[in-house]
Design brief:
- The protein is of the alpha+beta class.
- It has a single domain (3-100), classed as DNA Primase, Chain A.
- The protein has helices spanning 3-13, 16-20, 67-75, 79-90, 106-122, and strands at residues 27-29, 32-35, 47-50, 55-58, 64-65.
- A hairpin with a 2-residue loop joins strand 1 (27-29) and strand 2.
- The longest helix is centred in the C-terminal third of the chain and has 17 residues, at 106-122.
C-alpha cells in the first residue's frame, strides 16, 4: 500500500463529521454540521462540515479542506504524520506502507519552515 491508497482508505472508512466532532461540538443542519471554528475565536458558528462532500469550511477564517487537511491544520503536523494519526483512528494497519517511497530531502526542511510561518501568521503578531 502506498500513501495515495492509504489516503483513499482513510477517507472512505472514517466519517469526517465523527472525527472532527471529537474536537468541535457540531450540530446537524440539514445535510451538514455547524460549530464554532477551532482555528479562530468566534461566538457565532461559522464552521461547517459537509459529510456528503467529505469537506470542512470556515466562513470566518476561510480554512477548509478534507479530513487530512483538518488534521494538518488542527494538529500542526505534516501530511505523512496526518495520515498516520488518521490511520490509527480508523484502525488501519500502516505497517505495509511502502518504505521505498522516496521523498526529496528538502521536503522536511520546507515542511518545518511552513509550520513556523503558519504559527507566526496565526499568532497575535502575524
Amino acid at each position: 500500500m502506498n500513501s495515495r491508497e492509504l489516503k483513499e482508505r482513510i477517507l472512505s472508512s472514517l466519517p469526517i463529521e465523527a472525527y472532527i466532532g471529537r474536537f468541535v461540538a457540531l450540530k446537524r443542519t440539514n445535510r451538514s454540521y455547524k460549530g464554532l471554528c477551532p482555528f479562530h475565536n468566534e461566538k457565532t458558528p461559522s464552521f461547517t462540515v459537509t459529510p456528503d462532500k467529505g469537506i470542512f469550511h470556515c466562513f470566518g477564517c476561510g480554512k477548509g479542506g478534507d479530513l487530512i487537511q483538518f488534521v494538518i491544520e488542527h494538529d500542526g503536523v505534516t501530511f505523512p504524520e496526518a495520515l498516520q494519526i488518521l490511520a490509527r483512528a480508523a484502525g488501519i494497519d500502516t505497517s505495509e506502507l511502502q518504505k521505498n517511497e522516496k521523498r526529496d530531502p528538502a521536503y522536511d526542511v520546507l515542511m518545518r519552515a511552513a509550520r513556523i510561518y503558519r504559527e507566526f501568521l496565526n499568532s497575535a503578531d502575524g
